[in-house]
Amino acid sequence: MELRIDPWGQETIKEYEKLFEYFGIRPFKEVLPLIDKPHYYMTRGVIFGHRDFDKFWRLYKDNKKVAILTGLMPSGKFHMGHKMVIDQLVYYQNLGIDVYVVIADAEAYAVRKIPRKEVIEIGINEYVANAIALGLDPKKTVFYFQTNQDPRYYRLIQMISRKITLNELEAIYGELEPSKIISVLTQVIDVTFLTHKQFGGYECILVPVGADQDPHLRLARDVAERFSELGLKPPASTYHRFMTGLDGGKMSSSRPESAIFLTDSIKEAKHKVFKALTGGRATAEEQRRLGGQPEKCTVFELYAYHLIQNDNELKKLYDSCKLGSMLCGECKRRAAELLIKWLKDHQEKLAKAREIAKSLQLEPDF
Ligand code: TRP
Ligand code: SF4
């Protein structure tokens, strides 16, 4: 059977293990022992896979010039799934590693067909601002819009087009219209241009992304090999699981009930938690007898990905669910409480961060 990942699709990836066998993504577990103080996404298996992380880490440990780069498409409001990407950047920035964030405005405009003005506004006010409020240091982070780069960045995009065939693109993505081809080539340069000597000549770039972005990384690695004469080096990458939407589907800005947005009001957030799909049983009696199923529960995911950082505390919650000693009503009340506290605090930071984001003057002029 042919297995394809569609980075623009609405499908959510269900069987992460298949990605190991089929695409050669390596289990993150195997590099975990290299890291002194791993992020809880790493120890909890939220970051489940990688390519060449070991190589990146060795270079970092040897004080070589390395950086982290990732990108976000400004296609709607910023939600808890996006937060996962920024959390990882903050972790690496705190280790002293250079951090770059690309706002994929060209992609949002071309592929998602969002009006240009809206894309730019969302890029600054939602994405850059939330990233700053989540702890990225605006003085140490390089943010850029895909349409507002150095001319040499576009030169690289033009040059790599020579060594990529339509057949190879279609083998990876299926049928592609020009807007997607250009988005793909742009992203290939996003993850490689920093290794060019004109842009700092980094020895290795690590790209932390959701698993749906792997097709771009596979292509970028091939293209970098082919263009080694240009001095481009293949990126390393890590892959995290997606948050499940609160309704059980993909978490997506286009379905507001599937996601908690970082700008949700207290009332909205509470409502969403109370309506969320759980791993609870049909009746209270049954749940006391059989226990709940946290592994199938979107509320448990909220705890594990965002609300509880202490492992012992999370284990306790897991056990009381499994044992049936805590029922979903109480569990949701606790989750809502923690979430609301966090949202209030975040939204206070966000007001200030929006001003900073604006003052960075990142936006293209049209
Ligand atoms: N395609 C990514 C998305 O859909 C955005 C993106 C553009 C990106 N350039 C990137 C992600 C470089 C990682 C690295 O969100
Ligand atoms: Fe989910 Fe909590 Fe219910 Fe368990 S008790 S299924 S973790 S909501």
Question: What attributes does this structure have?
Answer:
366 residues, alpha/beta, Rossmann fold, Tyrosyl-Transfer RNA Synthetase, 2 domains, seven-stranded mixed sheet, 15 helices, binds tryptophan, binds iron/sulfur cluster
What does it look like?
By secondary structure, the protein is of the alpha/beta class. The chain folds into 2 domains: 17-244, HUPs (Rossmann fold), CATH 3.40.50; 256-353, Tyrosyl-Transfer RNA Synthetase (Orthogonal Bundle), CATH 1.10.240.10. 48% of the residues lie in helices and 10% in strands. It has 15 helices and 7 strands. It has helices spanning 16-23, 40-43, 53-61, 80-94, 105-111, 116-133, 151-160, 166-173, 178-190, 214-226, 266-275, 284-290, 298-307, 311-322, 328-359; strands at residues 26-27, 47-51, 66-72, 98-103, 141-145, 204-210, 236-240. It has a 7-stranded mixed beta sheet. Strand 3, helix 4 (80-94) and strand 4 (98-103) form a beta-alpha-beta unit. The protein starts with 15 loop residues before the first helix and ends in a 7-residue tail after the last helix. It binds tryptophan and iron/sulfur cluster (SF4). The site of iron/sulfur cluster (SF4) has 14 residues, from helix 13 and helix 15.
List the helices and strands and how they pair.
Layout: H1 16-23, E1 26-27, H2 40-43, E2 47-51, H3 53-61, E3 66-72, H4 80-94, E4 98-103, H5 105-111, H6 116-133, E5 141-145, H7 151-160, H8 166-173, H9 178-190, E6 204-210, H10 214-226, E7 236-240, H11 266-275, H12 284-290, H13 298-307, H14 311-322, H15 328-359
Parallel strand pairs: 3-4, 3-6, 4-5, 6-7
Antiparallel strand pairs: 1-2, 2-7
Bound molecules: tryptophan and iron/sulfur cluster.
